[in-house]
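Chapter review: from sequence to fold.
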Amino acid sequence: MARRKPNYDELLKKLGYQFRKPELLDEALTHVSAPKAGGQSYQRLEFLGDRVLGLAIAETLYKSFPNAPEGELSRRLAELVRRESCAEIAIAWDIGPYLKLGAGEAHSGERRNPTILADVCEAIIGAVFLDGGYEEAKGLVERGFKSLLDAPRRPLRDPKSALQEWAQGRGLPPPIYTVAEQTGPDHAPKFRVMVKVTGAETEFGQGTSKRIAEQAAARRLLLREGVWTEEEHGTT
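The token string follows.
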């Protein structure tokens, strides 16, 4: 009996793209464990899609944040192309039910495996690139990653960098960090560091190293001055 062709209608609606060569989507959804029928797994498409994703995100960021320095663009790029972000997009596309897996992998819940979902997300991007070209692939990335582009989940700067940029933006000298106290034995020291920014009250931070204590002090000052919020960045 001939194998029934999968119905990708709902998936294609979520992707917002119609394939000229549906076999490319088949390949993008095929795990290496799936029974071989003369086709390939998604691994080669994943390799391609990873590069296309990086370029599409980089171009989008370049246009969306015209005043952002290279460092910020790089941090945003790293946040968006990480595996967790790709897995999140795959879940939004509801890729799981369409994955072609070996029997063992299917029974062990691999349809929800974040690593596989992230790989397939990139493979689908690669498949769209081969099927319709870069502009179509970029459109897929822009649609799929829009929510992450608009609202990154993690701080894009570490506290010390953010505090220095804030001070520079106000025309102030760089923050000054001073060790106020060191306690504990040499093998397990504890530091209390003071940070001072011209025009702002002194703030303190504690940690098991000078660096950690400096970051904690910078974070506390950013929170106190309202530059950061506890909801987005928490406290230390």
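Two observations follow directly from the output. The CA atoms of residues 80 and 168 lie 27 Å apart. The first strand starts at residue 176 and ends at 183.
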